[in-house]
Amino acid sequence: MKLNVGGQQSKYGVEPGWTCVDILPDADVVMDIQEAPLPYPANSVEAIYFSHCLEHLWPHKYDFVLTEMWRVLVPGGILRVVVPDMALAMRKYMNDDLAAENPEHIRACLQWWFDYGVDEDGQVVLNHLGGFDGTYLRHVLKRNGFVQIGRRMYGTHSQVFVGCDNPDHEGTSLYMEASKT
To answer: What is the pTM of this model?
Structure first.
C-alpha cells in the first residue's frame, strides 16, 4: 500500500496503487490527520507521499502526525515530504527589488505565507501555520524516528515516487526523503 497524505486527490501521486488520505471530501480516506491515528495497521504501508500539507498543520501536532506515519510504514518504508522552502522564500523576500517599487509587494508576500481566508462554508481557512528549512525539517523527522534522511530535488526521488511531484512546486519547495528502520 502507498499513501498520498494531503493529496487532495490531485493528478499527482494517485496512479493505481496510491490511496489518498485528506481532510477534503474527494479523498479515498477522509480524515483530519492531526486528530486521529491513520486507519492502517503498523508496518503495512510501503511509501508515503506528503506534499504541501505539513506546513498547514499546527506545529504542536507535527510529532503526532509523523509518529503515525512512522508507525504505519514497513521497515525500510520511505516517506517523501515536500514543503515550501522557507529559507528560499525568505531569501527571495529579502532580496526583492520589487518591494522598493511596490510597497504592497511586501504585504502580499507575508499575506501569502501567513494569512487566512474563508471557505465556501464560511469556515476560516488558515494558510501556512509553520515553515521549514532543511535543518528544521531534518530535525523534526529525526526526532520522530526516521533515519536515512536526505534532501532531494524536484524529480530526484526514490523509484516509488515517480509521477508524484507537482511541477508547479519546482523551484519553490524543499524535498526530503526519510525511511523507517
So the answer is: 0.86
Mind listing the pLDDT tens digit for each residue in 71-106? 999 999 999 999 988 888 777 767 765 555 666 666
Pairwise CA distance, residues 13 & 46, whole Å = 14
Amino acid found at 53: C
**Residue type (1 letter), 155:** G
Using DSSP, how many helices (H) and how many strands (E) does the chain show? Answer: 5, 9
Q: What gap in Å lies between CA 126 and CA 147, rounded to an integer?
A: 31
- Look at residues 105, 89, 109 and name the one whose alpha carbon lies nearest to residue 97: 105
Domains of the chain: 2-85+129-179 (3.40.50.150)
- State the alpha helices, DSSP H only, in the chain: 62-72, 86-94, 98-101, 104-114, 134-143
Alpha-carbon distance values, 35 to 56, 58, 72, 124 (Å): 14, 11, 16, 18
Residue 178, φ and ψ in degrees, nearest 5: -145, 160
Distances in Å between the Cα of 20 and the Cα atoms of 12, 47, 62 are 10, 12, 19
